[in-house]
Amino acid sequence: MQLTLARYTGQSTIAVGTAVANRSGVAPAAVGCFVNTAPLVAEIDEDATYADWLRDAHRRLLEDLDHAAAPWEEIVQAAGKPRVPGRMPVAQAFFVHDDRRPPAGTLAGARIVDAATDYRGLGIFDVSLVVESGRPAPCVKLIYNADRLPPKLAAGLLDSYRSLLQAAVEDPTQTIAALPIFSAAERDDLARGGEPPAAKGPAWGAATRAIRDQAASTPQADAVVCGGETASYAELRRRAGRIAGGLRAAGVTRGDRVGLMLHRSIDLPAAILGVWQAGAAYVPLDPEHPQERLSLIAADAGLRCVVADGQAAEKMAEDTAAAPAAATPTVLLAGLAASAEDPAAAGYEPEPDQPAYVMYTSGSTGTPKGVVVTHGSVANLLRSFSSDTPMAPGDTMLGATTFAFDISVLELMLPLASGATLLLPTSGQAADARALGRLLAGPGVTHLQGTPSWYRMLLSAGWRPSPTQTLLCGGEEVPPDVAGALLETAGQFWNVYGPTETTIWSTRHRIAAVEGPLPIGRPIAGTRCYILDKRGRLAPRGVGGELAIAGAGVLDGYRNRPELTAQRFVPDPIAPPGGERPDGPPARM
């Protein structure tokens, strides 16, 4: 029992109470329950073999029983542990070994067939294990406090006790760390990491293919709207093709990285698509961001060129220090858009393993770190969200996030891959909560995405979601008050989670009610999530541990950071092949 509790709690010192007969000094004829509760303390060294640990545990048990006659209150006082109302001090777990045979004979003329002990009094402990070995059919019972342990966790604890005990008996030379606490079926289920079935929909390997198909089927439908300007799908495809042709003429080839220093406009998604059709990956350089950050990113990314709009180019012409990379050629977006369309670029479809973009972290913990995201990972994300939060022609998604933040990729590409409309606020609108609120209150906006802080800003400005709107919320832990306010009127509200080291979002959960901490949900398509203990083993269901993510959305590592990559991205030890991020946040499955 102590070994099982050690695996469930992550602690190496486990105290379990047990009942000890204490009739010392009591007259033999006295009637009553003279029982002491004695705490039995075990030190768990997981590198020791079970046989060695058992010998040491037996020695400690005899030492503890030498003091079993001490009154419980004296033991509690000597332990010096603070009391917690409603919980037993010193030991919250209890063990009973009952080897008595059921009484035989008759009682008042009735023949005794069986007798059972009522263990409900053990409910004062969080969990109690009772082994009845004297019965004709020996059994093990688990009694638990339902206010402390959910029923599924209690059932899992009993199953783990059985699995660990069986393995220890079969081979006591195993180390404690190697003893399994799952059945083979349970482990296989946990090893699947909650991965859902493949997302429905066309199996395109890159977003460019989906958007090209939309342009062919609905060429005159609105693709992008920004600041009173509108681009149809046909126009979006033509602009992207010209930008791709101009980039290829400028020497951009497959595998290059192109910086985009652009303000919000209908040409932003066209520029991204143009870079992709040229075979390159884009590196966002938001003109509104500090110059020092832009220079660090440009230097680390190794750019072939920087594409700048007129406003950004004018700023760089006035102040050469404003250029993110002085030695890197700057190409005007207007010139690219006037280029001749390259037929080869217009029909080009990137391979799934080709880089789509290089995104840099905020740098809040040091120098910004770049992560390279492939087209296959982006396509997997879009297919998954197309299935979970479907969009169709006639729907509109707001793209309010700066394109230097990775969640912008979902906002920019999901509507275009679905035949819907992308609504880009102007820079002025994006920075003004009331202006955004008016934009969202207008007709047509059906999908939006933001951080909890962003939603709080909108709520404070008086905005409320409509029943026709689907909200995605992530990037931070969602405060209950924000979730509650959004749930009041929103059609759908999804909590989404994903670290920068994966492709935007790795899990999602539709919130129906706010009851305690909001779950981050289950993995998206092609993704596995594990809860691991401190030794990197699968944790039982309901037990806290570290979140590790594996599958299609996990990136290959940090750009130009081999040591950090080796530390943070390790081979998946649970269900290879795949990568995982083992140093994730505390989590519970």
Report mean pLDDT, rounded to a whole number: 88
By helix and strand content, what is the structural category? alpha/beta
- Provide the low-confidence segments as ranges: none
Biggest β-sheet, characterized?
Answer: 9 strands, mixed
The count of strands amounts to 27
Spatial ordering of strands, largest sheet: 9-8-17-16-18-19-20-21-22
Number of helices: 19
Helicity range: 25-40%
Ends: how far apart?
A: 22 Å
**How would you name the oligomeric state of the polypeptide chains in this document?**
single chain
Anisotropy-based shape: elongated
What percentage of the residues does DSSP assign to strands (E)? 15-25%
Radius of gyration: 31 Å
Description:
The protein has 589 residues and is an alpha/beta fold. It is 32% helix and 21% strand. It is built from 19 helices and 27 strands. The strands form 7 sheets. A 9-stranded mixed sheet has the order 9-8-17-16-18-19-20-21-22, sandwiched between helices. A 5-stranded mixed sheet has the order 2-1-3-6-7. Helix 6 (207-217) packs across helix 7 (233-249) and helix 17 (452-460) packs across helix 18.
